[in-house]
């Protein structure tokens, strides 16, 4: 049976309207190049929203997926499997953690972290005295489940779904004084992003991260680092916390971990993991062999010194080219970020128009992202060749020219 050709217009007829995708359909990806269904070529500086950290169709990942697909796809959590044990070993030997819980996404990893924090307080008897509060930060983003959307500090995502889970407090980001005052004996956990991605690519200051660690220790609260977007090499360190030299109690990651194959992970210490007793939490597909095999190969490649060193080189190149565009056109007021997570904030006269700039990028042959209405976000492959990156920056410069006309 011959399948009918699909068109972009089919989206409105077939898919729930939670998204408003671009008026093109990517069909083939190779490295940092993407071709749409009309055969047009683009350079990908979006990376599937910080997911394809090793680009499209990486040959080592394809080989790993093919090999595992000929063995076993799924066994459920009544068994363990070899790929997930290899992946867990890689994650624990290269981080502060000694235990891992696997899920399918960043939201699920964060859900697990928040549930674990509440359960630790409950099992210790602390919850009975009111130690149930979770502290998060304004303009944060932690996922789309009811719990994580409530913890996220953006009312536009959470208000329509009220009433939300209770005992959640939002404090100003990067405000040490407010954090020290707002985190109390009733706080069981503090969760935050080392770089706020969705709200503008805003890195945390070292003073702020240290203040959170100190205050959590004082009030016996767990410190959770949401590294869903910053983890697995994105910032030039294997995980962003390594660049801050502050150790969390729990870390979550996803996105680039599977390079497009859905997987998420919550990492923690053994003494905390023990509170997740048998049956207290779970995931049907979490840590399935296909996802784990791919993620283990991703970790192997990203951990290579040349990969992480290359991120720093690419960061410097992107920053220079974006600052050159800003100086020439005045379209950007600030360029900021870490590694291959970069935000270019639009100048006052262009605020609210990041979506239009992204559209101009499509016309110029380059994929970029928004980080809110005022910021252009770049999250390309960590290993994009420098000549391709230069080509992409030329296309982005052309997009800016179109944007200004």
TrEMBL record:
Q: Which is a Gene Ontology cellular component entry for this protein?
A: cytoplasm
Give me any GO biological process, just one. L-arginine biosynthetic process
Q: Give the classification, highest ranks.
A: Bacteria, Pseudomonadati, Pseudomonadota, Betaproteobacteria, Burkholderiales
Query: Catalysed reaction(s)?
Result: N(2)-acetyl-L-ornithine + 2-oxoglutarate = N-acetyl-L-glutamate 5-semialdehyde + L-glutamate
Where does it live in the cell?
Cytoplasm
Protein name per its UniProtKB record = Acetylornithine aminotransferase
What is stated as this protein's family in its record?
A: Belongs to the class-III pyridoxal-phosphate-dependent aminotransferase family. ArgD subfamily.
Q: How is the cofactor bound?
A: Binds 1 pyridoxal phosphate per subunit.
Among InterPro entries, the record links this protein to:
AcOrn/SuccOrn_fam (IPR004636), Aminotrans_3 (IPR005814), Aminotrans_3_PPA_site (IPR049704), Class-III_PLP-dep_AT (IPR050103), PyrdxlP-dep_Trfase (IPR015424), PyrdxlP-dep_Trfase_major (IPR015421), PyrdxlP-dep_Trfase_small (IPR015422)
Q: Which Pfam families match?
A: Aminotran_3
Organism, scientific name:
Paraburkholderia ginsengiterrae
Q: What class of enzyme is it?
A: transferase
Q: Does the keyword Secreted apply?
A: no
Please name the PANTHER family in this protein's record: AMINOTRANSFERASE CLASS III, SUCCINYLORNITHINE TRANSAMINASE
Q: Which residues get modified to N6-(pyridoxal phosphate)lysine?
A: 255
Stated EC number for the protein is: 2.6.1.11
**Pathway participation:** Amino-acid biosynthesis; L-arginine biosynthesis; N(2)-acetyl-L-ornithine from L-glutamate: step 4/4; Amine and polyamine biosynthesis; ectoine biosynthesis; L-ectoine from L-aspartate 4-semialdehyde: step 1/3
Assembly behavior: Homodimer.
What PROSITE patterns does this protein map onto?
A: AA_TRANSFER_CLASS_3
Q: Which cofactor does it need?
A: pyridoxal 5'-phosphate
Question: What's in the keyword line of the UniProt record?
Answer: Amino-acid biosynthesis, Aminotransferase, Arginine biosynthesis, Cytoplasm, Pyridoxal phosphate, Transferase
Report residues binding pyridoxal 5'-phosphate: 106-107, 141, 226-229, 284
């Amino acid at each position: 049976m011959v399948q009918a050709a699909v068109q972009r217009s089919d989206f409105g007829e077939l898919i729930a309207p939670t998204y408003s995708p671009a008026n093109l359909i990517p069909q083939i990806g190779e490295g940092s190049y993407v071709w749409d269904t009309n055969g047009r070529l683009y350079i990908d500086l979006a990376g599937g929203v910080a997911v394809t950290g090793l680009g499209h169709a990486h040959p080592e990942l394809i080989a790993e997926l093919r090999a595992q697909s000929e063995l076993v796809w799924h066994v459920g959590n009544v068994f363990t499997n070899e790929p997930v044990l290899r992946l867990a070993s890689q994650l624990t030997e290269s981080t502060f953690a000694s235990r891992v819980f696997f899920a399918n996404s960043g939201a699920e990893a964060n859900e697990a972290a928040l549930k674990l924090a509440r359960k630790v307080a409950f099992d210790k008897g602390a919850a009975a005295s009111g130690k149930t509060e979770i502290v998060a930060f304004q303009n944060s983003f932690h996922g789309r489940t009811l719990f994580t959307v409530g913890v996220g500090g953006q009312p536009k995502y959470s208000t329509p779904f009220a009433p939300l889970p209770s005992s959640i407090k939002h404090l100003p980001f990067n405000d040490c004084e407010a954090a020290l005052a707002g985190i109390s004996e009733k706080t069981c956990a503090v969760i935050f992003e080392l770089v706020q991605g969705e709200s503008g690519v805003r890195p945390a200051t070292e003073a702020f991260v240290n203040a959170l660690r100190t205050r959590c220790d004082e009030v016996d609260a767990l410190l959770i680092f949401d590294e869903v977007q910053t983890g697995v090499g994105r910032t030039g360190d294997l995980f962003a916390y390594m660049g801050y030299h502050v150790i969390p109690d729990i870390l979550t990651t996803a996105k680039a971990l599977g390079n497009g194959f859905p997987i998420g992970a919550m990492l923690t210490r053994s003494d905390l993991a023990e509170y997740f007793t048998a049956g207290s939490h779970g995931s049907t597909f979490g840590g399935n062999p296909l996802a784990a095999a791919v993620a283990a190969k991703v970790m192997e490649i990203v951990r290579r010194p040349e990969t992480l060193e290359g991120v720093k080189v690419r960061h410097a190149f992107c920053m220079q080219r974006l600052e050159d565009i800003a100086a020439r056109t005045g379209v950007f007021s600030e360029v900021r970020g870490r590694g291959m997570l970069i935000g270019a904030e639009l100048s006052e006269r262009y605020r609210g128009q990041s979506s239009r700039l992204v559209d101009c990028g499509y016309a110029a042959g380059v994929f970029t992202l928004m980080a809110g209405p005022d910021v252009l976000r770049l999250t390309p492959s960590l290993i994009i060749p420098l000549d391709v990156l230069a080509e992409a920056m030329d296309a982005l410069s052309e997009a800016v020219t179109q944007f200004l006309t």
